[in-house]
Target: EVE domain-containing protein
Amino acid sequence: MGYWLFKTEPDTFGIEDLKHRPQQTEPWDGVRNYQARNFLRDSVALNDKVFIYHSSCKEVGIAGVAKVSRAGYPDETQFNPESAYYDPKASRDNPRWYRVDVTFEQQFARVLPLSTIKATPAIHEIGLVKKGHRLSVMPVSAEEWQILMNMAQGKQ
DNA sequence: GCCAACGTTGGC
DNA sequence: GCCAACGTTGGC
Model:
């Protein structure tokens, strides 16, 4: 099974919003970065686990967990001229952007802060802390996943 | 709001 | 293909 971290701005869409969606499920769309797109299209698989990370907000950090309920398929918003994510260079024959569906699994009692993650030596290799920290979709190793889950659930 | 660290664009 | 200019991200 694969592990991932997806970034989102909770003022727009956060773990609370996901929890209250019908079926607690939502397409993860609007990703417009090629490296992140490649992950969504090629690597993120059904039933993979996803950390939901809140950025650009009061409590920056990992807010909870979702799972992938549908693997990569074309992001509908690229075809919609009304959408903020519209891409005139994309076509249905040749889609440029992809999305997956995610389903809510759990919200942590407290957001696991970025500052705590940064202060954890075992986690120094994670993309959040290293180069590429601007990626909105990034892989997490099984070890990192376990460490972060334990920290988030207070089982240090 | 600042600004560093990227990513993208476009002229050549 | 280079690289300067520009745009975006995201922590603080």
In short: Chain A has a mean pLDDT of 92. The longest strand of chain A covers residues 98-113. Residues 142-152 of chain A form the longest helix (11 residues).
